[in-house]
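TEACHING EXERCISE
Course module: macromolecular assemblies
Task: Read the component lines below, then compare them to the predicted structure of the full complex.
Student: A.B.
Group: 4
Components provided:
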Amino acid sequence: MLYREAGQFKSSYVSDMAIFPLRQDRVGLAVILFFAFVVMPLSMSSFTLNSLMIPILVFSLATIGLNILTGYTGLISLGTGGFMGVGAYATYKLTTVMPEINIIVPILVSGLIAAAVGVLFGLPSLRIKGFYLAVATLAAQFFLSWCFIRVPWLYNYNVSAAIEVPTRTLLGVPITGPNASPVTRYYVVLTIVVAMTWFASNLVHGRIGRMWMAVRDMDIAAELIGIRLYQTKLLAFAVSSFYCGVAGALMVFLWLGAAEFESFNINESFLILFMVIIGGLGSLIGSFMGAAFIWGLPVLLRAAPETFGIPIHSATVEHLQFMIVGALIIFFLIVEPHGLARLWQLVKQKLRVWPYPY
Amino acid sequence: MDLLYQIFVNPFGQMVAAPDLLVQTLWEGLVSGVLYALIALGFVLIFKASGVFNFAQGIMVVFAALTLIGLHQKGVPAFVALILTILVMLALAYAVERLVLKPLVNQPDIILFMATFGLTYFLIGLGQLMFGGEPKVMITNELYLPKGSFDIKMLGGFVALQKIDIAAAIIASIMVATLAIFFQRTRIGRALRAVADSHKAALSVGISLEQIWVVVWFTAGIVALATGIMWGARSQVEFSLQIIALKALPVLILGGFTSIPGAIVGGIIIGVGEKLGEFYWGPLIGSGIESWLAYVIALVFLLFRPQGLFGDRIIERI
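Instructor-supplied answer key:
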């Protein structure tokens, strides 16, 4: 009833091609942003912010990164964890060498470094594709995580072989390190994620995004209509790794506070890939849904036995959690292989014609 | 100049100076290669027959080995436990066919690949729930697997060959030979190859997809059990084996995704290359290069022969 487009006429080409053509969508987006920026930080406990909201935002960013590569360009990558690690370690290096620079600058610059590394490992992508490329990116993953432990220069020769986040301030307020409050960190992460999502949205709806999708749908045909395959694929690798690198830097600097090579192992890559698939390949909103689902579900599962007063051993809960997540992944793939984003579209379609089915 | 010497001359000098060490390294590489090849074999079987890239092969190895040990700890005699484990793998094959593959017929490859991911998670949870997460020791004595080693005197030194490794190599070759005959000569084998070529065409000539899938997953389960026993006998049965199983991927790239002999040859190349690299070139750049060397070998290989040593030629049509 509320979700109708009746009466909204498009009088220009621009409004017809808008990303959110319906007024209700635009209002909905504004409401979500209002909630994210105002209501949530005020109403949520710092524990919820730190263990639920910040990780979801960070993983959403990484998922967008992988989605650009896998969902939009059709190149499977299992090296996401490695690229995130590059971002984190590069930020650490930059900010310890040049402590006086505003922390946001190293985070973005290390995104560029991650992009360069991504392009390097993307080089084989012209000759190989599919699972073969997945194995090639596994090489990146294992090589990079080997670097994170065997190259002491990266972690400033610490004895613990881990990186500890130093305190850095933005406009006089500490935003990283042990003194930063969860609310400030949440705001910084949220701002960066919103800005980069907006950028990604413009990218994938424009010429570059169409080139990527053409390559995904059939690369030979794309080549025939004049798309330069090599540049397009490498650009996808670069942009994707940039997003992953920034996500990795945010993960360490604004969420975990410390990291070692184990933080960026192969499981991280798989986790992000889950989020992409469950959320929906080639969908930005799906990236957020997938991240929220995969990260939020175990948190809920852990909380469930306590809420209902069922006495279960915590180790058992963890094992059950693995089983349930596994079963749910299969269930979701069977019910809706195109992910949560597609489910959301179907719901919207149903709402538009409600209460009549046609 | 010194670096070049370190890379190109010194390792070979070492090899010539201590040939017994070289032989020992080669042997170790050969054995780990055989084990990689066994895992790769499981991948190839399923990939050939259903086009599914079965990520769960690694956890199936762990799960099978754990079931065997767990049953034995409950007091079941070793060989009865072995048979029961085989039945469990059969039940698993049925369950996978009913609950995962059948509802996902005709979906793109990546979706099926993701489904095997879900299966992996499920099996990890189930295995830990039933048998606990701690590493376990394989019941080698009860299964009459040989222990100890032959020390052979050669080339001015000793080379130690573990008996269990020799057994692993023999079992692997028997399995490969049996599977090759099974694929080439039997009715079901032909049906399997038909299904691999085209699901639709196979259906139209009256081949039951369901039956084939159960057979294939069951066979992969038995291969997984054999791998689990062998690997468990060499070290321990633990869940991290699952990640080591990813080494089967470079093996597959070398051998080609569809070739059974390819899996074996690829496994041996990767195993030997890895051990040689670690032993002779590893100290130059810090040890532990074993973790990624296999993938880099595969990567270099991909650039020159994307279909692998024995794989079918990749033909693209518009």
